[in-house]
Design brief:
By secondary structure, the protein is mostly beta strands. It has one helix and 22 strands.
Length: 257
């Protein structure tokens, strides 16, 4: 009897607006899953879901997420493993139950401006999850913005004896974890035309035509990424740009085409 699996699926170039739950759910997939070049504006729950991924690889590449006031721009629930997060532009927060073997490069993680929320609060079952070459835009206020816990090396999948903590600044987070040695600070001024969601009115509906998610001239995210073969070949400048949209690249067509 053949056992069917959710594998070798692509979700791409979709324009998603005002979703009750998540924009895209790659849930219960196994391997060779690609979620790329999608734009999602307004989600009632979360942005992009991997609930779970059974081993991977699963790729989230060059997606844009804006306004997920009740949840997180990623929903990595039910212990997904083997996820690669490259070149996304995400405005919101990322809070997640434990995951495994996740690797993030060249993304823009920008907070929604809420002083009551942390930008990043995550746990890894594996000591070899990695973060580097990402741009981070912390929320204002006194709340710690980076909350992290992971298994110790050689004790993967054992969270009884972990390392981690909570930190207000990117520098403190980097010094304590070894992550983001090439990470930078960004904010919405790093993008051409993107305003902060109104946290006092989470029911507000925004429209893609209001925004321009391309990098602004002089943005610190320009040429600040790392080379990822077969992902950002053909970049312009000294190095790839961070975020979903490379300066000088052909415009992405979202939705009908």
């Amino acid at each position: 009897m053949r056992k069917w699996q959710a594998c070798s699926n692509d979700f791409y170039n979709n324009d998603l607006h005002a979703m009750a739950d998540d924009f895209i759910e790659s849930d219960s997939s196994t391997h060779n899953i690609r979620v790329f070049n999608n734009r999602g504006i307004n989600a009632g729950q979360c942005g992009l879901s991997a609930q779970p991924i059974f081993g991977g690889p699963a790729y989230f590449i060059r997606n844009i997420v804006y306004n997920v006031p009740a949840g997180s721009f990623f929903k990595f629930n039910i212990y997904p493993a083997g996820v690669f997060v490259y070149h996304n532009t995400l405005i919101g927060q990322w809070g997640s139950p434990p995951y495994s073997n996740v690797h993030c490069r060249n993304n823009l993680f920008i907070g929604s401006g809420s002083p009551d929320r942390s930008l990043f609060s995550n746990t890894s079952y594996t000591s070899y999850t990695t973060f580097d070459y990402n741009g981070w835009g912390p929320n204002p206020g006194d709340r710690p913005q980076f909350i992290w816990k992971q298994a110790r090396e050689g004790r993967d999948y054992e969270l009884k004896d972990t390392i981690g903590g909570s930190w207000k600044t990117l520098k403190e987070f980097s010094n304590a974890t070894g992550f983001e040695k090439h990470g930078i600070l960004v904010d919405l001024t790093s993008l051409r035309k993107v305003s902060m969601p109104d946290n006092s009115k989470p029911e507000t509906v925004y429209f893609a035509k209001q925004f321009d998610f391309r990098l602004a001239p002089g943005s610190p995210a320009i040429d600040a990424g790392c080379i990822l073969p077969n992902v950002n070949d053909g970049y312009s400048g000294k190095a790839p740009d961070m975020g979903a949209l490379e300066i000088g690249a052909k415009d992405v067509v979202y939705g009908p085409r």
